[in-house]
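Entry type: protein chain
Record version: 2
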Amino acid sequence: MASQNIKLIYFTGRGRIEVSRLILVAAGKQFEDVRLETFTPEHKAKTPFGQLPLLEIDGETFAQSVAIATYLAREFGFYGKTNRDGLRIDQIVQLTQEILNAGYRAYLFEPDETKKDELIRELKEKEFPRYLGYYEKLLRDNGTSYFVGDSLTLADLIVYDVVFAFLQRGFSTSGFPLVEALYQLVESHPNIKPYVAQRRITPN
């Protein structure tokens, strides 16, 4: 893959492509980071399923954020060492989609303001801490500071990304020391640290 041209296409924010950006950054790979201010009918017509994000490799286009992140993690050594490691990573990725989707539903897709406030309160008081508890146990059981094995994987990056998104909205990881340590571990990665320090602040 080193000789191929990699392009990620998404909106201006982090959203559903940021974990793929983080994989490429962590791997030290050059890529074209295309950020669209608008998504026109012309753009939509050129996508496989009428939506973003997209990954282009030498002009061939692929969609679906989890598929993109999974592929890049496999290509660049962030998918564990065995199929069992991959299964452990997959379960964390899919678990994280649940809390991420709940966040999107509350903040972006609920039109009724009263209902929206209820969903956000439920997220902050119950759902987010519940998922942090799952993460805490997985980290404790693995015993290496990482979710899988003893090195950085997609599981660590995707949890870091979703925790960042919730912290930005005033949520807390207090009471979950292993999650907090993982967050700091990922953010202090020598390639990720400068990327995070200079990236544009966006709501999502």
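Comment: The chain has a mean pLDDT of 93.
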